[in-house]
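Incident review: delayed structure delivery

Summary: a single-chain prediction request sat in the queue longer than the usual turnaround. Root cause was a stuck worker, restarted by the on-call engineer. No data loss occurred. The affected request and its eventual output are reproduced below so the record is complete for anyone auditing the incident later.

Affected input:
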Amino acid sequence: MLYFYADFAAIMWNVYEEETIYNSGFYSCGLVFQRENTSAGIEPGNLARYFTSEFIDLYELFGHTALRVKQQRPGGFDYVFNYGMFNFDAPGFIWRFTKGETDYCLGINDFPDFLLNYQFRESKVDEQVLNLTPIQSRALFEALLVNAMPQNRVYRYNFLFDNCATRPRNMVEMVLDNKVRYKEPGESLPTFREEIDRYAGICPWLIFGIDLALGSGLDRPMTYREQMFGPEILEKAFSEAVVQMSPDSAAVPLVSRTEVLYDPEVPACPPETPFYLTPLFVAWLFFFFVAAVSVYGISRKRYSRVFDTVLFSIYGLGGLVVFFLMFVSVHPATYPNYSAFWLHPFWLLMALFVWFKSLKSIVRYYHFANFAGLLLFVALWHWIPQQFNAAFFPLVLVLVIRSFTYLAVSVRLKKTEKNKDEK
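Output delivered after worker restart:
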């Protein structure tokens, strides 16, 4: 987590009671981030940043950011302004989340409880203390109070571009009149997909789902600013950043020093998925099972309609999800998605059509087109402007082999009927 703070005399509004409370004490104001393998703390007269380490819950793998404000006197308050609040029990939460219309809000927590939560998880916590004048600190604090009012605190969450890490960063930049200068990395930057894989690589099924849901928009190189959607890169960017308020003033480092607040003996770590439970292994196992069923069907000149009804229904339902994300949701980078060439709702029609003799010719033409089209898709796999999950390859081959099976059985049955007629 990351927090910034500095001492100042200020007026604090109670945003919950919407009353004005006058205080004559000094305050420290800070920004807090959470991510894997890092953390943060506080010191008077400066702005500091927090980071935390490993997480078990999937939505925490990428980290978190919040802002801290502390009153520097005995009995003074110590609050965290947290942009990562959401309510699972809100009406229509699942539907709105799926559609990409998830609303997050800015909440306020007591800092000791906030920090204790990550200590309980055995997450490492470091601190970056940043340079901030009392005037800048007061401006940040007052901006947070306004932002935390009920009419202002809700915002439309965007995983890549407007999240609980980018909002606190933007608040700090606003207070510094956008005079923060980041050191651009010398090496080439990763794509969004590569960056997500780096954060969530320990959860292969999560990566599988992300690769299935998000399309080619995820495969363009990021800018350094876009890469700061994750706290780890944001920490690095802040540690190397400088602030120059005017052309005549000296550039000063944004970070004055880094400290460790909590370093667990055994850091929390999500359990690693065994290789035999990874998407790639399961997909290949599924392919060999379907291949065995297909070879058996061809040898017996039989085409299992029940088997394909179940199989195509699964693919068709997956295709509905992909098409929904592409054409209905407002999630970033869902369109175009080239996985729609093999995972689409039309498989639901095939699951139904195979039961009607009058539609046999349509089914045959479809399988011929699918067989040829997917072979071309596989041949162009590395030239399509989208990085596919390795587990997709055997899943595509499943469809290829089922179309081939239908065509092969149809040809063998025709030959058998022809031989009967000649006799």
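Verification: The chain has 13 helices and twelve strands.
Action items: add queue-age alerting; document worker restart procedure.
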